[in-house]
Write a structure and sequence with these properties.
CATH topology: Double-stranded beta-helix
Oligomer: single chain
Helix content: 10-25%
Shape: globular
């Protein structure tokens, strides 16, 4: 399957490490990285040396860079969103299980996150939960129940409070209450035909076309199921690491277990 890149799967095949210098990777190697993304949901690279220009250039080989509706981008590079926790802050941007920008009509397919400054190794890890495995292990009765269901996702969901500090600094002025979208909660990968659960606990408001009580009960069950330990891998950051994930295949959750340290990440989302 992989001829030009060295792929090392993580525990339980949730994610994979790739040993490559991404800036010198050929178009064929980039295509193999996309195959690895489809297969494992998230891929990791260590010891990369990216400036903003080379980062954006690399990202565009995966698709069109998407705007993040809630924050202005990095000066000179609007494609890059600065994801930051300052030393004196208690809340971390994006903490809690979610997948990115599900409240938009066309959510980004991929997200890239590059570490500029990170806490001591073992702190501030990002957890990834495979939704392939989550779907595969669902009881058949639940697979049938959710097969044709849709859910409403909102920018004003539970995770919205974690972006308040950044919005105060670089907000676009968009009212989160004005942004919502409805999406199917089961996705099928067009390349490998694997199905996944597409539910973002940080953004979902309700499941459509069933009662409020049924929606609450079903969401509670699915949220717990989606993040079972056997579906999860925790990535330990250090400076100059890059993670790329499919928002259709994994949930992610940055662990807020540190204070007094500056964490700075540069994020690009891809349609």
């Amino acid at each position: 399957m992989f001829k030009l890149i060295n792929v090392k799967p993580c525990k339980n095949d949730v994610g994979a490490f790739i040993d490559a210098d991404i800036l010198s990777s050929s178009p064929v190697a980039i295509e193999e990285m996309k195959i690895a993304l489809d297969e494992y949901g998230v891929i990791f690279f260590r010891k990369q040396n990216l400036d903003s220009s080379s980062y954006v250039k690399f990202a565009k080989q995966f698709g069109t860079c998407a705007d993040y509706p809630m924050l202005k981008g990095l000066d000179g590079f609007p494609e890059i969103t600065v994801v930051e926790k300052k030393p004196d802050e208690q809340i971390m941007f994006g903490e809690g299980w979610h997948t990115d920008s599900t409240y938009t009509k066309e959510p980004p397919r991929f997200t890239m996150l590059y570490s500029i400054k990170s806490p001591p190794k073992g702190k501030g890890n990002t957890l990834f939960a495979s939704q392939y495995k989550s779907y595969e292990s669902l009881p058949e009765e639940y697979k049938k129940k959710i097969e044709n269901l849709k859910a409403t996702f909102s920018a004003d969901g539970p995770i919205s409070k974690t972006r308040n500090n950044r919005i105060a600094e670089k907000g676009t002025g968009i009212d989160p209450k004005s942004m919502s979208a409805v999406h199917a909660i089961v996705k099928e990968n067009e390349r490998n035909k694997k199905k996944s659960i597409y539910l973002s606990p940080g953004h979902v408001i309700k499941i459509e076309d069933i009662s409020a009580e049924e929606s609450k009960t079903l969401l509670s069950y699915l949220f717990e199921h989606q993040t079972k330990p056997e579906f999860v891998y925790g990535f330990e950051w250090e400076p100059n690491c890059l993670a790329i994930w499919s928002n259709h295949v994994v949930l992610h959750n940055p662990v807020n277990d540190f204070t007094g340290v500056h964490r700075v990440m540069h994020r690009i989302t891809i349609q």
